[in-house]
From TrEMBL:
Residues 97-187, 248-337 form the GerMN domain. Residues 337-357 are annotated as: Disordered. This is GerMN domain-containing protein. Residues 348-357 have a biased composition (Polar residues). It comes from Bacillus suaedaesalsae.
Amino acid sequence: MPKLPKVKIATTVIASTVLLSGCGLFGGEQAMKEIDPPQDVNMVDDQAKLEDGKSSEGNDKKEEATKDTVTRELYLVDKNGYVVPQTFELPKENSAAQQVLEYLVEGGPVTNMLPEGFKAVLPPDTQMTTDLLKDGTLVVDFSNEFTEYKAEDEQKILQSLTWTLTQFDTIKKVNIKVNGHEQNVMPVNKTPINDSLTRADGINVDNSDVVDVMNSELITLYFLAQEGENTYYVPVTKRVQETSEDKIVATINELIKGPGLVGGLLSEFNSEVELISEPDYKNGVVTLNFNESILGNLEGTAISKHIINSLVLSLTEQPGVESVAIQVNGKADLKADSGEELTKPVTRPQTVNTGEF
């Protein structure tokens, strides 16, 4: 099972900076409730300035330039072909759905913002209009340029559209039109889209270990990937056989098992990690009690922030799970290897990964 090289861990600050913030590790940020952009985020660029020729140390005036922006997730494709969320500060506009779609177009406004190794998913010059229906369906009407993609990119396009648009709580599912005509299948590889697109369809779907597809279920796991010195989190929807164990236990077991033969992904879980008691679920909080192997080779009671992040991101994909509390041998006096104490359950962040590579 691929493991994250230890030499890289100390240098991976970008994804963790976004995730390890606020209350606990992730913070208690709320999901986007409206399709309209949230309240302004002020980005302050402080620039030292000399006044009237005076240059006294410590007395320089600072000029503050403010810019109205909003935080958005764009699902882009990395060098390994995975559809991955990246977080950007975008200019504030009236139509949030229209805006994020425009930033998914190759050669569009996202071009100069793309992290190294990433690309946009929609064909160049694609245009679109959007219409949000009362039932939460977003109808996207694309121009003919939308049809000019390679067959092997069809699933990536569907997943990128679905997961980018459903970051907004008001959008439950997505319907696609081309030049005003409803589409029952995608135009190139004929993937069926009759019943609209939802996150239930999964992302970066891995069916490699399943024998009986009809008696299986989907769980979404978050593994690690690297580009240079930077680490980011990749969602992988895995099809697992239905068993008597609940989905929380199944999720943890799959994280421990790791990405397996799926290329380009990493994990910091070792094979000796195990739960020593059943997960306790109460009021949206899942409490997990692990053996000491969860600590790895770290000193004292520190747990890798990447393990914590993978657990929280994966488990909060399940309905009803809002936060995760971690224990080792029944004790909760733990901390992350980045220094934060795990005094409270860790909540999911509003956004995952950052575009500032």
